[in-house]
């Protein structure tokens, strides 16, 4: 897969997640760690805005490198929410627990994907995407 395609796919993932924070916020509110100040809805909206901004940055070659690095940090930063979800869902059905537990190791390839996008300059010498 070309670096540009990989960047656009990651941008699409981030944009989809960002939109989901506004379309179905309750599911995100429930995994905001209680130790964070303010309301869970505020954190849900803020993370949705951040995901949309990161998606835009990933889509533009001029900001892709910085946005990819920020995306990797974002994935690491939301890990506590995934831990909370896994803990909170520990008594749910086997399939629900599997989803919650699968999110934990999934952060590693997401972080690596973002780092990979950030280390490949997809701009050619003539300024076009390659």
UniProtKB/TrEMBL annotation:
Its main location: membrane. This is DoxX family protein. It is a multi-pass membrane protein. It comes from Streptomyces omiyaensis. The keyword Transmembrane applies. The keyword Cell division does not apply. It is found in: Membrane. Keywords: Membrane, Transmembrane, Transmembrane helix. Signal peptide: none annotated. Pfam families: DoxX_2.
